[in-house]
What we know:
There is one protein chain. This protein is of the alpha+beta class. It has a single domain, classed as endopeptidase fold (from Nostoc punctiforme) (Alpha-Beta Complex). It contains 2 helices and 12 strands; from the N terminus they run αββββαββββββββ. The chain has helices at 2-22, 71-83; strands spanning 36-40, 43-46, 57-60, 63-67, 106-108, 113-117, 129-132, 142-149, 153-157, 168-175, 181-183, 188-193. Strand 8 and strand 9 form a beta hairpin. The chain is globular, with a radius of gyration of 18 Å. 30% of the residues are buried.
Amino acid sequence: xxxxxxxxxxxxxxxxxxxxxxxxxxxxxxxxxxxxxxxxxxxxxxxxxxxxxxxxxxxxxxxxxxxxxxxxxxxxxxxxxxxxxxxxxxxxxxxxxxxxxxxxxxxxxxxxxxxxxxxxxxxxxxxxxxxxxxxxxxxxxxxxxxxxxxxxxxxxxxxxxxxxxxxxxxxxxxxxxxxxxxxxxxxxxxxxxx
Length: 194
């Protein structure tokens, strides 16, 4: 019984750390880590390879933008370069950008941005930060920038969605029966706006 338990725990332990290690590897030979793959308003999206790959911390004028080439680094760099916005709290994982204790349409003081819930009172706008929660395979969450809004869709631009995923993704947008706006993706917690 003890040997079986030790063997099972060893397999789980090795599987977990093998999986974590594989998430750092670039399996897509079509791109190199750090390669420019997209842009929005002249702010570049770089390819990151494996989703857990970290190159180095990026700072501008002493302000922490995050780890190259993670999703947070692109979002913070976009807000810094395009809006000249520095977040009061310049640290945290993607999911920490959304504070569930803040009412819809109120200021998120750690980011100095207005926060909207999904569903929420305000339709997403170009330039908003979309915040996604964690999953079983991604405990950090994900952030992206709204690049286009139509009557019934929202397009995002993102960095580090995975080695084979696109830098652009589109979500269905609906107006709920109570008049709120909802992006049809259960991971989307909400959006932040300057």
